[in-house]
Automatic annotation (TrEMBL):
The keyword Oxidoreductase applies. This is RDH16 family member 1. The keyword Signal does not apply. InterPro entries: NAD(P)-bd_dom_sf (IPR036291), Sc_DH/Rdtase_CS (IPR020904), SDR_fam (IPR002347). It comes from the Eukaryota. Keywords: Oxidoreductase. Belongs to the short-chain dehydrogenases/reductases (SDR) family.
Length: 423
């Protein structure tokens, strides 16, 4: 073990605490310089050693002060002298330090695992309302929670979607038609939920409904294109939450908002990333406000998964449509080559989008069933290992990386000198 105590007990503790203990620790930590400081005597000290006159004491303090200051002389001794604690030397060699660190992280992970594995009781009596259950994550989550025995209230955009879902689940699962962009649809779905949950309240609200198009370079879009995406992904989430909140509060339940890893690092133009940044902000403020009522708010941040909204054929036809609609000036600036390389990139997505949607729905299920849900769930290896670390990097690095991997317009403007004041 790299931890060693130099000396047994202090023969003159008062003096040592005053003259050495405090400063040894600070000196050792700051500059590593211990010159001028007396090592604890190993033999029994004489009376004269125990007492200083005022002049001696002032001199001593001055020596300590000088040793504590960062001088080039002191820095030479850095690393060669051990830190001191209360007059005792404290050795922590780098390998030992790492060992302690790894052990601490391991212990913390174990404790967290144990804490998070505790499941809430009476799941079969708890109601969960999920939006966007026609396909993708919402559809899978509805089936998963139904299998788990929870009471699922699944909202679908279309009657076909609702019918298909009912055909694959137990009789306990019920469906309702909901368009999150329409206030009257939200009001009537809330009334429908209220009738079912009664006095028990709504345990879980999952805001999952979302769209990804129109999406493309921002310059190719107009305000309505942005508004369409924001209307579903952000304002829909907000309005459904506000409407259902009294029911969730009654159950002291959970709100689970589906954001995305692009709610942390913006990777494309259009309303999608903006909407997910908005979902993150909304969820953060909601969580802080609702904690007073015992309601928990969790955010799901998936990486890229293969669903209807990420289907490359659908995304490509949307980009082609935007290209056709944009002005001839923009088309000339970007060039056909840009469009071609944009479409090739979209096609490539299919290969590396994860097909295992349960990675995401498991996070959602955990947020709804664990006694101690997390605040944020990064779902998928791409999210955990690439996008999340990327989101913590300096902006210039993220800019360089994104620009390096993006298609380039053909007519990049030449930098023209600014007109001088004499012109
Ligand atoms: N797939 C990914 O890589 C990914 C990554 C990060 C986050 N997400 C998020 O995950 C959530 C679910 O998306 P998904 O990947 O599962 O895609 P999805 O299969 O397209 O699911 C989206 C669902 O929302 C429904 N919907 C669309 N507009 C709606 C509206 N106005 N009102 C109510 N429902 C509406 C869709 O219904 P229809 O099928 O009838 O259109 C569909 O059921 C979204 O919030 C999305 O942003 C997805």
């Amino acid at each position: 073990m790299g931890l060693a105590w130099n000396g047994t007990s202090s023969p003159n503790p008062g003096q040592e605490r005053e003259a050495a203990g405090h400063c040894h620790w600070a000196c050792g930590r700051i500059s590593g310089g211990m010159d001028g400081l007396r090592k604890p005597p190993l033999t029994k000290p004489t009376q004269s050693v125990n007492r200083f006159s005022s002049a001696e004491w002032i001199e001593k303090k001055e020596t300590i002060r000088q040793n504590c200051s960062m001088t080039p002389g002191n820095s030479e001794t850095e690393g060669s002298k051990p830190a001191m604690l209360g007059g005792h030397q404290l050795f922590l060699s780098p390998p030992t330090m790492w060992l302690y660190l790894v052990a601490l992280v391991g212990l913390w992970k174990l404790l967290r695992l144990f804490r998070e594995r505790q499941v809430v009781s009476h799941l079969q009596d708890k109601y969960v309302f999920i939006t966007g259950c026609d396909s993708g994550f919402g559809n899978l989550l509805a089936r998963q929670l139904d299998r788990r025995g929870m009471r699922v209230l699944a909202a679908c955009l279309t009657e076909e979607g609702a019918e298909q879902l009912r055909s694959k689940t137990s009789d306990r699962l019920e469906t309702v038609i909901l368009d999150v962009t329409k206030t009257e649809s939200i009001v009537s779905a809330t009334q429908w939920v209220k009738e079912r949950v009664g006095n028990t309240g709504l345990w879980g609200l999952v805001n999952n409904a979302g769209i990804s198009i129109p999406s493309g370079p921002s310059e190719w879009l107009n305000k309505q294109d942005f508004a369409r995406v924001l209307d579903v992904n952000l304002l829909g989430t907000i309005e459904v939450t506000l409407s259902m909140l009294p029911l969730v509060r009654k159950a002291r339940g959970r709100v689970v908002n589906v954001s995305s890893i692009v709610g942390r690092v913006s990777l494309g133009g259009g309303g999608y990333c903006i909407s997910k940044y908005g979902v993150e902000a909304f969820s953060d403020s909601l969580r802080r406000e609702l904690s007073h009522f015992g309601v928990k708010v969790a955010i799901i941040e998936p990486g890229f998964f293969m669903t209807t909204m990420s289907d490359s054929a659908m995304l490509s036809s949307n980009v082609k449509m935007l290209w056709d609609q944009t002005s001839s000036e923009i088309r000339e600036l970007y060039g056909e080559k840009y469009l071609a390389s944009y479409l090739t990139r979209l096609k490539g997505f299919d290969d590396w989008h994860s097909k295992d949607l349960s990675v995401v729905t498991d996070c959602m299920e955990h947020a709804l069933t664990s006694c101690h849900p997390r605040t944020r769930y990064s779902a998928g290896w791409d999210a955990k290992l690439f996008y999340l670390p990327l989101s913590y990097m300096p902006t210039f690095l993220v800019d360089a990386l994104v620009s390096w991997t993006s298609p380039k317009p053909v007519l990049l403007p030449k930098t023209s000198p600014l007109p001088s004041s004499q012109d």
